[in-house]
Amino acid sequence: MDWDLITNSILFNPAEWEIVLNEWPRFMRGFSNTLTLFAVSVVGAFLLGAVIVNLMASRNPSVRAAGRVYVDGMRMLPFLIFAYLLYYGLPSLGIRMSAWTAGLLGLILYHAAYVAEILRGAWSQLPAGQTEAARAMGFHGPQLFLRIVLPQLVLGSAPILGNQLIYMLKDTAFLMIITVQDLTYAANSVQSMYFVPLQPFIVAIGLYWISTLAIEGLVFLVGRFARKRGLGRA
Amino acid sequence: MPDAVPALEARHISKTFGELEVLRDISLVVNPGDTISVLGPSGSGKSTMLRCLNFLETPDRGQVLLAGEPVGRRADGRLVSDKELAKSRARMGMVFQSFNLWPHFTVLQNVIEAPTKVLGLSKDEAVARAEGLLAKVGLADKRDVYPFALSGGQKQRVAIARALCMKPDVLLFDEPTSALDPELVGEVLAVMRDLAKEGMTMVVVTHEMGFARDVCDEVVFMDRGVVVEHAPPAEFFGNPKTERAQRFLSRYA
Ligand SMILES: Nc1ncnc2c1ncn2[C@@H]1O[C@H](COP(=O)(O)OP(=O)(O)O)[C@@H](O)[C@H]1O
Ligand SMILES: [Mg+2]
């Protein structure tokens, strides 16, 4: 390896970094789009995942089976293909969506399956007495789930849920192929406009990395919250 | 009061789990203010019977009446809606062997959760009620502690306060002291004794023969899914009629 070439002409080539700096607003637009996609799909996937885990816990066997089929079906599908199908495949069935709609829908539908599976795992660890005590006092339905069950599932699975958030963040990058202008799209367009192959992606990686650190910080805080209540793993 | 409506009544309850016939034609009358203890060997169906009273288990046959009103099933035998069942359950407190406090809530939050969310009590009102009850069970200073930091005896006293905060018509206990270290049993029994004295209506599944003998108005002895004897404690302990009860007493009492 020629270290001089690496250090002088690529990484520290001031002219190439200047290009990146000049295009900074483009990166910020892309990053802000990535964060928006992420935030909306986290909320959506969590809500839908909470609904699906209730299907999987239903008293009705066919409802349970439907939940199970959904979760297993999504999990065997590569996200890229799913996003592709939603945006490029569905129009042939007469269903047309904007790239953003298709992207968000894809992220939500896909990751909800994973969230549901994580919550189901945590639920199977929850002692039956927790819900029995609630039922015996007159809780039922959504209120029982939201007040008594869900908080314990989240606290009990915070590290795995945090991991899933990181996957969701990274999966936003796939939406570039359906023309969503996210951070990866921004890096890619700077790269192809100016033929600087490396720096734009270093910037993108740095921004993804900072976001990941923020997610891990959140997981840490939730973990501390759980430990204060004797919940979760040390 | 022979004419008073029973606080709680079970009529001809049966329950099977698969092939296993766990309860056979169980009937039970609990008059207002009475404390009934349910005794019997392990596996005789005591927990299942208690859980049928608030439909945590759905009896296959038979009726449960709370102050004369059917619980869980309509007169025509159809199950009531979840919402309607929840309304009946809110009037019956239950205390479990394993406490089942909610770990994500503090002691105070555990006690006010159902009164505020199920009964719709205002928070101030519920907190006032809860603080009174925590003082009564000797745990006023633990209100802001999380359950995991409590001893078993303290947890069970919180669970009793939690049940009482609903102002239930009847309290059901399923072996409330069986999971406790022996030195912690007394503090829980003392609270239950006070409740009995105050006229709380209670059904207590227990192996504490002293409690059954001294505190209860009636003893129900179960074996293999049937009520074998049903008598005032003095009579049951002094002069058990059946051989099964005699054998049970010679082992436990
Ligand atoms: N959910 C269940 N499914 C299958 N069998 C059960 C269930 N609950 C209890 N049983 C069985 O029913 C019988 C009575 O149990 P239980 O009511 O817990 O007795 P006890 O409380 O008197 O010890 C036991 O043989 C037990 O194994
Ligand atoms: Mg039992």
Any overview of this molecule?
The complex is a heterodimer of chains A (234) and B (253). Chain A has a single domain, classed as Orthogonal Bundle (MetI-like fold). Chain A contains 11 helices and no strands. The mean pLDDT of chain A is 93. Chain A has helices spanning 3-11, 14-22, 24-56, 61-75, 79-89, 99-125, 128-136, 141-156, 158-171, 183-194, 199-228. Chain B is of the alpha/beta class. Chain B is globular, with a radius of gyration of 18 Å. Chain A binds chain B through residues 127, 129-130, 132-141, 143, 147-148, 151-152, 155, 228-231, and chain B through 54, 56, 82-83, 85-87, 89-90, 92-94, 96, 98-104, 113-114, 117-119, 146-149, 159, 162-163, 166, 172. Bound molecules: adenosine-5'-diphosphate (ADP) and magnesium ion (MG).
- Find the count of extended strands of chain B (DSSP E, 2+ residues): 10
Helical stretch count of chain B? 9
Average pLDDT of chain A: 93
- Share in helix of chain B: 25-40%
The CATH homologous superfamily of chain A: MetI-like
Query: Which structural class should the secondary elements of chain A be placed in?
Result: mainly alpha
Unreliable stretches of chain A = none
Please provide the ordered H/E string of secondary-structure elements of chain A.
Answer: HHHHHHHHHHH
CATH topology of chain A: MetI-like fold
Uncertain spans of chain B: none
Share of residues in strands of chain B: 15-25%
What ligand species are in this complex?
adenosine-5'-diphosphate, magnesium ion
Number of strands of chain A: 0
Largest sheet of chain B: 6 strands, mixed
| Termini gap of chain B | 31 Å
Please work out how many helical segments of chain A DSSP would assign: 11
- Taken from the alpha-carbon principal axes, the silhouette of chain B is globular
